[in-house]
Amino acid sequence: MKSLTCYIDGIGLLGPGLQGWLASRAILTGEQAYQNHKTVLPSPESLPPAERRRCGPLVKLTLAVGHAAAAAAGCDVSTLPSVFSASSGDGNNCHEICAMLASDDRQISPTRFHNSVHNAASGYWSIAAGAMASSSVLCAHDASFGAGLLEAITQVIVDNTSVLLIACDAAYPEPLNSVRNIPDDFGIGLILAPQHSAKSMARITLALTTDAPTILMDSALEKIRSHIPAARSLPLLQAIAGNKSTTLVIDYLETTRISIEIAV
After folding, report:
1. pTM of the model
2. How far is Cα 33 from Cα 22, in angstroms, rounded to an integer?
3. Where do the domains of the chain lie, and which CATH numbers do they carry?
4. Which of 89, 241, 115, 234 is closest to 168 using CA atoms?
């Protein structure tokens, strides 16, 4: 694969102990001690009341980090192409549907069903943002952030336009959590642009590699990185937070990973 280059113009971040990009920069650089607090999901005020009542954690994550990234970059969300990536669908809905199927009453509500499908977050985003541009949705288990990043940057280059990447994962309730352990909710939004601008935070260049993934020195942050697929983005965010030009590696396939050269 040829190397792929673009610019990061905006970042949205929400996760355990990481309440927003600006508030998290000092934590990522080690200037402030990390404290593991459960992720606080804001109310999705950009949705109409009926949809606001029905949406789950994955949608709330999507809207929070997507709007934050777009606001930082000064982008019009209604015209912004988007890529959504998650390692699975809404865990709470999956749990409720499984519980209903295991009971005597197997009539699943239409609302429960349409919230369980993998592209639900994309649909809610289109309603909340009034987005009419193209949208792609993908899932690649633990490789989902890397797959989403490759897809989004490819679109940036091919279409010569800015693209919003949103990668999110939400925790499962028991007993599913014992099989697929995602300890907390985590989401990241990135505005990826084809040209440098006054908003640009960093230039990134991607290539495939067989090198081992970059490990975070902070053991608490490393636990988040290794246990939540969307948090595989943390080494990238750490480098940008520290205003540090470097080369790092993030997880992708079992023996093929993604090398990211960062210039700030």
Report:
1. 0.95
2. 15
3. 8-199 (3.40.47.10)
4. 89
